[in-house]
């Protein structure tokens, strides 16, 4: 019985090590209501919802599938306009972790969010809004 338990533990540990080495991350369950709380740290510079204005940063309505640097009436850096990013869960997670390393020259002054769960929740909240600011 002890040998079987040790084998199971070693096998599980090896599986975790393989996932970590491959660069894969576990799927994070998303909670839009928690994401709304995370968005409070973004709201001084960004807005979402009907009639959301551009602020220091662009409004984030319709972010899912939008090209970086294309929100109407916002003055983007050339770096953002030329980044080629199309926002989706993966590109958003990379960017929000460390904006200046993903888009050198961005005007966004933000240290990033490092917690994958908070990022997943924030994305769940933002992706709810269509281009008009209505929840899908």
Structure description:
This protein is mostly helical and 136 residues long. The protein has one domain: Orthogonal Bundle (Cytochrome Bc1 Complex, Chain D, domain 2). Helix content is 42%, strand content 0%. It is built from six helices and no strands. Helix 2 (32-39) packs across helix 6 (116-126) and helix 4 crosses helix 6 (116-126). The longest helix is centred in the N-terminal third of the chain and has 21 residues, at 2-22. Mean pLDDT is 86; it is low at 4-25.
| CATH-derived architecture | Orthogonal Bundle
Low-confidence stretches: 4-25
CATH superfamily: Cytochrome c-like domain
Task: Give the overall shape, derived from the CA principal axes.
Answer: globular
Helix content: 40-55%
| CA gyration radius, whole angstroms | 19 Å
Distance between the termini: 53 Å
Highest-level CATH class: Mainly Alpha
Mean pLDDT level: 86
Task: Please count the beta strands (DSSP E, at least 2 residues each).
Answer: 0
Quaternary structure of the protein: single chain
Overall tally of structural domains: 1
> Major sheet, described briefly?
none
CATH topology: Cytochrome Bc1 Complex, Chain D, domain 2
Number of helices: 6
The secondary structure category is mainly alpha
The fraction of residues assigned to DSSP E strands is under 5%
Pattern of helices and strands? HHHHHH
């Amino acid at each position: 019985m002890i040998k079987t338990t040790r084998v199971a533990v070693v096998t599980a540990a090896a599986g975790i090590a393989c996932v970590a080495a491959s660069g894969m991350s576990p799927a994070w369950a998303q909670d839009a209501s928690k994401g709304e709380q995370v968005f409070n740290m973004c709201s001084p510079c960004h807005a979402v919802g009907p009639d959301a204005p551009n602020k220091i940063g662009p409004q984030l309505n319709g972010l899912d599938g939008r090209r970086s640097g294309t929100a109407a009436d916002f003055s983007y850096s050339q770096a953002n306009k030329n980044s080629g990013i199309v926002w989706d869960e993966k590109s958003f997670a990379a960017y929000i972790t460390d904006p200046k390393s993903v888009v050198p020259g961005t005007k966004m002054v933000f240290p990033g969010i490092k917690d994958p769960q908070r990022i997943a929740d924030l994305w769940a909240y933002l992706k709810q809004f269509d281009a008009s600011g209505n929840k899908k």
